[in-house]
Amino acid sequence: MEHRFFTSYPPPPGSVIEPADVTLGPLAGRTVAIVGYGTMGRAHALNLRRSGVAVVVGARDGSPAGDRARAAGFAVHPVAAAVAAADIVMLMLPDTAMADAWRADVAPHLKPGAAIGFAHGFAIAFDQVVPEAGRPCFLAAPKAQGDLLVELHAADGGVPGLLAVTDTSPPATWDLAAAYCLAVGCLAGGGFVTTFRQECVSDQFGEQAVLCGGVIELLKASYDVLVEAGYGAENAYFECVHELKLITDLLHRHGVAGLRGRISGTAAYGGLTRGPRIIDDGTRARLREVLAEIEDGRFARELLASHQRTAELAADEAAGPLARAAGPMLARLHPGEGK
Question: Are 135 and 116 in contact (CB under 8 A)?
Fold first, then answer.
């Protein structure tokens, strides 16, 4: 193999590759097609270009995403044409759109030997995309939101990332995946070797149990309890929502033990004694149920069948007390944002 960035092929899950151990060599002379120019697709496209990699964007005719890509200076083609012109095709579409796009516009037009890549494991983990044996197929998943990835890359920084390769890919796909991660800026702090399934299941569980589900519901419930008990909406918003960022920033930088040492003694004692009453064995049992639904595919099937309900569910939440309270508070705390 011309490029050897790992000590063994395949590298064991959990191993870490450092940016100093990787070059852009495997990308030399290759064109990357970004299919799906959303927030993360845009980030990959901009960072690849900044790294000197040739990029085209695949978009449907009349697509607003295609217009945004053109405005950013990218050559935009219909998806099938972009795929046919590329040596690496990055599928950055929503999970619910992957299967149709793969069948209609991607698989029939791939060059022999062209690689396919993903920023999230769902399509491979739940068989929405099934590449033929020998087709290079990799995962490059930055652990950051797209706009932040662009901002840090432009400042010669980056974020950690997860990378994976399918079992039927050629061994050199690992080097391609590492080079791609370097180009988009997701080896800072290390590139952590995983599998498509582990990335997907962990990601969905984290979203549902903590980041986009559990935490939001805890905020809503806590706000409601304070307001129902007669406490001011402003007090409730500050204590249950606004200060969450202060705590998560401490957690992000210092870990749980470091956080405890940086808050008041009252806050530390109250959290240590009352937190376990809120998150108890019953909560853990429900968390295991949520994880099982992801692992056995029930959530994937529900998502594919019912994702049209998302807007309706979000509208119901937006009509709730906490979402309504956020309007005037955000106008004061973050004037000018969101306009």
Answer: yes
